[in-house]
## 1
Amino acid sequence: MSTYIFGHTTPDSDSIVGAISLSYLKNQLGEECIPSRQGEINPETAFILEKFGFEKPMLKRNYAGEKVYLIDFMESSQSPSDIEEATILGIVDHHKLGDLKTDSPLEMWVRPVGCSNTIVKQMFDYYGVEIPKELAGMMMCAILSDTVIFKSPTCTKEDTKACKELAKIAQIEEPKELGMEMFIVKSDVLTDTKRDLVLRDFKDFNMGGVKVGVGQLEVVDLSVFDNMKEELFEAMNKIKEEENRDSVLLLLTDIMQEGSQLLVLSDDNSKIESAFNVKLENNQVWLPKVMSRKKQIIPFLERQF
Ligand code: MG
Ligand code: MG
Ligand code: MG
């Protein structure tokens, strides 16, 4: 029996870096842990791993009989299908309380901050463990990613403080510049299939007994999507039907304009319209100032379902 640390089903940079950073900390504390991932990594994460010279964590989708720490999620809908047969030793997360159950007491580090790696940084400080330079650089990037270079409403003082301290360790003078470089990599939406784009940062939620999937693409200029909306809707429709989802939403977030174009395929559009107090036109609507799925989308949907 080994101990694995991994993030949500479709991993983002916070999930991947968090698996690595938390494993490093645990190993330093004498608890042998292996970082892993439930799915393929996205281009932004590949950029971060390469920049700081790390390998991607091992791909592992089954955890029956293993011990696990969860980082960056605590929802059954974002867990491996056999999570109930694993022993959850702990959770490090910055999302709403999920629906997972455990048999035994566990370690919980859950805080309303902008990034799981901010919490991991605080754990390093708590235990007095030094963070290696390259690891600090990756953790800093995870924070820049999750907080959209501090623009997201989820960003707190603790995130900016952690980011500043990590930048110092990593000897990176202009974190925001590196952040922008990262988001330009993230804005490459031309090489992937439309299906892969919808699924690149996709999360399922169980809302009142039905499955609602919400994807998000964060780019520096929304015009990259101008000629692909129709194909995106086709891909969304397929994804909706495959797993009998009630709704599939896609947030196209413009990080410069600071808002999101919401694409909607739902069994009941009126629920989505009421959630955000808007009228959909061609199954779309522009939501000014909306950048966070966690804070500005999911809670409003949950009230409707
Ligand atoms: Mg995440
Ligand atoms: Mg996160
Ligand atoms: Mg995100």
## 2
Amino acid sequence: MIGHAGRGSNMLALAQNIKSDPNMTLATVIAPNMSAPGVIAALDLGYPVQHVPYEPKETYTSRLLEALNEVEWVCLAGFMKLVPIAVIQRFRGRIMNIHPALLPKFGGKGMYGIHVHEAVIQAQEKESGCTVHHVSEIYDEGEVILKATCPVLPEDTPETLAAKVLKLEHLSYFRALQKVIDGE
Ligand code: GRF
């Protein structure tokens, strides 16, 4: 399952890799919002998409669990909400997320989207990158599966850095999924 809310570039990159791997099946893309660009692209490509809106809140967890019934591995990609505890518990060790920085730095509250790259540049870091990690009850704090790095150059802006990191993300998420499946 690939949880996804917006642009969906990681979801689409991952889905494409999964589809071309004879040993894997893309079980479902969970879509909170059917008009998100990534979801529209996934539908165009014929990927299995399930609409699981956040509302009504009271039934969100049970509807999400139901949608994940046939799923073995869960990859969050741009999922903007906290994952319900019951979902984390059901998939412990089999649910992962990607973050656009080198955790544990630049993670946690407020660290999403362009804010992450602004903070990295502000802190004059020499390198950045992405982290794929297991999802635990504490935001951005699950065990790291894989990190990939790129240099932060003096001329980098938050936007150029975001573009570099996004390229790395597209290469890293599938590798991380394979690593976890292979038990490495
Ligand atoms: C990515 O930067 C990812 O690291 C973070 O959310 C962003 C989603 O981008 N979790 P996209 O929708 O996959 O293009």
## 3
Amino acid sequence: MSYQPLQGQKALVTGASSGIGAGVAVALAAAGAEVVVNYASSVAGAEKVVDEIQAAGGKALALKADVSNEVEVAAMFSAMFAACGTIDILVNNAGLQQDALFEDMTLAQWNRVIGVNLTGMFLCSQLAVREMRRRGPDPALSKATGKIICMSSVHEIIPWAGHVNYAASKGGVKLFMQSLAQEVAPHRIRVNSVGPGAIQTPINRAAWDTPEALQALLKLIPYGRIGSPEDIGKAAVWLASDDADYVTGQTIFVDGGMTLYPEFADGG
Ligand code: NAD
């Protein structure tokens, strides 16, 4: 049996029917957590993740909810508490892009991206914090009373023309995460972000599914490879574990050096 620092803990991963969320759900389960695999529409994708976890001897269940919808989020948390009893780890991963040049961007595109990427984190984190505080600490499970991990992006610091709504949402995640971390630290709830660089998932298929696109993308990655959901899953397990017990309010960039201003490597 591999190292299981999350043994017996209950985790919820939003947007976990594909990509990074699926990778994080599988990694948390392998580390011993019972995982709720949230999905917005792809029940088949969510069930595939649940099957993969169960086939490896882990515990998981799929729950549907649009994270931007207050009523659906409340129903999802109620269903999780009925099935698992409580929540120890929340991974706010659900996110989407609706790209447009600024002058053409519709209010609907703006509101949808902010609604899912930022308001979704507000709704899920609020119910998680309330439950963690109600339940209190369980030192047999973890030094912290609860852990929240936000899936941010390198675009919480790198501006992104043509994606103003997305970059604004991730910039918002940065101070959402830090302000919440400051507020709940006295209750021993740790809040951190993972900031992925370019990870091979459906959200950015156009950036890697032709050799030309991949070559252009690799110019932005000093480490010379695109990332995988497993790279992010490992960071999430560490942040959720007691190995990171003194870490709160931080963004861990997992980006192959994308935030290192790669264009300055042989210029500037
Ligand atoms: P993805 O499209 O595979 O995953 C996003 C998931 O969110 C999907 O499963 C989708 O169904 C779900 N989702 C969308 N709207 C939802 C809603 N309203 N309610 C619940 N779930 C919803 O792409 P991904 O790359 O795995 O993205 C996961 C997260 O990682 C996102 O927050 C994204 O911004 C972030 N991210 C990705 C990359 C990358 O390179 N792939 C880089 C930086 C950040």
## 4
Amino acid sequence: MQVLGIETSCDECSAAVVTDGRILLSNIVASQIEIHKPYMGVVPEIASRTHVKWINSVVKKALDEAGVSFDEINGIAVTNKPGLSGSLLTGLSFAKGLSFASGKPFIAVDHIFAHIYASHLENEINYPYLGLLVSGGHTIIAIIKSYEDMQILGTTIDDACGEAFDKVAKFYNLGYPGGVVIDKLSKLGDPNAFSFPDPSLHKGEHQYDISYSGLKTAVINQLDQFHNKGYEKTNENIAASFQKTAINMLLKRLLKAIENTGIKTVVTGGGVAANSYLRQSLSELKGITVYSPSLKLCGDNGAMIAGLGYHYLKNNIKSGLETTVLSRVPVFRKTYP
Ligand code: KG4
Ligand code: ZN
């Protein structure tokens, strides 16, 4: 079964063709990074208007590169939550139009489950496992029971992990997008140059929750120290020290989850899953099997949407034209969705 996947939840305009939820025939990701760079962040209105301009050619390119005609596509999968409403609406409306005109089914899928699914495109992975979803919008540690069922153990109570990277980079004027720049700069810095707060684990049901606002504020306040005391500002050391603390906060909670659940398989997903310090640290865990998507599948992409969508479509589960978008999803609940 060949599924066309469409992903426009934020600033990547992406489409892909995937066979049987596993075989990646094409994965076109048109990045808007250069467009949003002057603003040092994604401007929602510009993002959705750019998707409107690009979506047709991105989908066409995905079909061309896969060597598949639209007639040979069995169904369409599209992200409808969570994300920027205008951006999501572009992809969803496009998918609905294709479905209505062709009579082919479409399924609206969840971006969070899709990020976790990304590793399934490259590996045979059995459920259940521990999922670590770290992106610009979410930070979730969960027991993943199936492609559509997770038990959330912990989430961020304020900033998402990627968001903290982006905000620190913005305050220090390090460049855009922040996560990538900090990862790169860190390689030249001393991770022990600054000691930033690393809050200890809570007790009970909140033990896996995480807060990045304290760390973010401490790193940003360090900037005033440079200004006020005339110290030499070393971006590399700031980046490395921040990155080490931010990632260790995740690892601490993940290790606790492994210990408490006895689950020894970990699957990561989301833009921050590309972080080199995180990948290195995970690869050093003894007795734990870790699956991280290849770098091209960490960030937003249509392949993970097509892959996940296949599992619904093969069971004849499809969406109706009344389907709409949802910018936020209730990840504070212990069962999701
Ligand atoms: O999954 P994604 O592409 O979009 C969302 O669903 O949010 O994730 C984007 C986030 C951004 O915050 C970006 O700074 C971060 O992922 N990111 C990284 C790295 N590459 C991207 N963060 C840390 N290290 C990286 N190498
Ligand atoms: Zn994402």
